[in-house]
Amino acid sequence: MFDMNQIGKNISNLRKSIGITQMDLADKLGISFQAISNWERGISMPDISKLGELSSLFHVSIDEILGNQKTSDIAKNLIEDQPVSDVTMEKIEEIAPILYTEQVETLVEHIAEIEINADSICSIAPFLSQDFIDKFATNLLEKTHSFQSIMPIMPFISQDILNEQISKVFSETDDLWTFHSIFPFIDQSVIDNLAYSCFEKTDDLNALHPIVSYISKDTLNHIVAESLEKHGLIGFNLIMPFIDSKIIEDYILKHQA
Fold first, then answer.
1. pLDDT per residue over 71-119, tens digit each?
2. Residue 4: exposed, middle, or buried by beta-carbon count in 10 A (0-12, 13-18, 19+)?
3. pTM of structure
4. Hey, which end of the chain has fewer CB within 10 Å, N or C?
């Protein structure tokens, strides 16, 4: 990653070498002098649009400003709208803080032919658009058919896309173990709908076992009551600890009368 303190010192020294104040530099760049002060104190750093201006103003290479040869070449090519080569996820992660979202995504697409997984995308997720992350997650799921493959970026995926993919997969299987690892990220309403749909498809309360701890109390009680009316006290030994005892007691009392 960038050493913002060192970059700040570099900018400060270069500014002093041409004999201008922070206010002068701010005027030349069309920004506030507070921004210049934050750069020089290592609190923040210039984005890519200002790197080119600083390079021209100080008559130095971008590398001399950033002090990072690996990423300065990429920055230089982006500024000059030249083809970028020798890009890796490691380099993208390093340079992402000074790039615009579209530029980060362009770099990722540049190496799309290389195997990119959710772990590598997770490291730069804050610099990517929601649409890009959602499309990446969707494509990865279509390729792997496993929600485990997108676990690292689960917090970054939009709820609509996640719900859509869950519904799509559930339409092909009634096995809730497929979704077990991602239930902490799913809306309660979606979990409850899945639970009820699973019961309707399997007519088996034990099929809810993988997610029973996530089902809302009202939904679980409703499903259990329906099962009791259809099958009586049979077929839910796996989820018994999660069932409201009053429902069982009421059923027994009703059928003893």
1. 778 888 888 888 887 888 888 888 888 889 999 998 898 876 556 788 8
2. middle
3. 0.73
4. C
Q: How far apart are CA 69 and CA 88, in angstroms?
A: 14
Q: What DSSP string runs through the chain?
A: ---HHHHHHHHHHHHHHTT--HHHHHHHHTS-HHHHHHHHTTS----HHHHHHHHHHHT--HHHHH--HHHHHHHHHHHTT----S--HHHHHHHGGGS-HHHHHHHHHHTTTS---HHHHHTTGGGS-HHHHHHHHHHHHHHH--GGGGGGGGGGS-HHHHHHHHHHHHTT---GGGGGGGGGGS-HHHHHHHHHHHHHHH--GGGGGGGGGGS-HHHHHHHHHHHHHHH-S-S-TTTGGGS-HHHHHHHHHHHH-
Q: What is the pLDDT along the chain (257 residues), one digit of tens a residue?
A: 678 899 999 999 999 999 999 999 999 999 999 999 999 999 999 988 899 899 999 999 888 898 877 777 888 888 888 888 788 888 888 888 888 999 999 889 887 655 678 888 998 999 999 999 999 999 998 888 888 889 999 999 999 999 888 888 887 776 788 877 888 888 899 899 989 988 988 888 888 888 888 999 999 999 998 988 888 887 777 788 888 888 888 888 877 75
Which residue, chain included where needed, has tokens 């760049």? 29
Residue 229 exposed, middle or buried by CB count within 10 Å (0-12, 13-18, 19+) = exposed
